[in-house]
Automatic annotation (TrEMBL):
Residues 80-113 are annotated as: Disordered. It comes from Oreocharis arfaki (tit berrypecker). SUPFAM superfamilies: UBC-like (SSF54495). It holds the Pfam family UQ_con. The gene is Ube2l5. This is UB2L5 enzyme. InterPro entries: Ub_conjugating_enzyme, UBC, UBQ-conjugating_enzyme/RWD. The lineage of its organism: Eukaryota, Metazoa, Chordata, Craniata, Vertebrata. Residues 1-108 form the UBC core domain.
Length: 113
């Protein structure tokens, strides 16, 4: 809902293991995104689903809400792409410009409300 990603829609996938809920689901973005917490393969740095932090009582909706919050508000401390995190910290205007352009090129149209 916030710039630089609010002009597009991003497709992602939650994969659940056979051992769920004892093991966390894995979130993967299927739409390319310019984001410090998402690597080029779509893997997401999401502490909530890290095995050392996972609680078997965590619900899928909580995982989705956490993912959306993280994508909406990039945190340069949750990093899979150090170069993008550095740009966010040191040159936020350049980061925003690149993220907006990447969103324009790769994101899907947002559905009507």
């Amino acid at each position: 809902n916030n710039p630089p990603y609010n002009t597009g829609a991003f497709r992602f996938e939650l994969t659940f293991s056979r051992n769920h809920p004892l093991e966390p689901p894995r979130a993967t973005l299927r739409t390319p995104i310019y984001h410090p917490s998402v690597d080029p393969e779509g893997r997401v740095c999401q502490p909530l689903t890290a095995p050392e932090h996972w609680e078997h009582t965590t619900r899928a909706i909580q995982v989705l809400q956490d993912l959306l919050l993280q994508l909406d508000s990039p945190d340069p401390q949750r990093v899979l792409r150090p170069d993008v995190a550095r740009e966010l910290r040191e040159r936020p205007e350049e980061f925003r410009r690149r993220a907006e352009e990447h969103t324009r090129l790769h994101a899907e149209p947002r559905p009507d409300p």
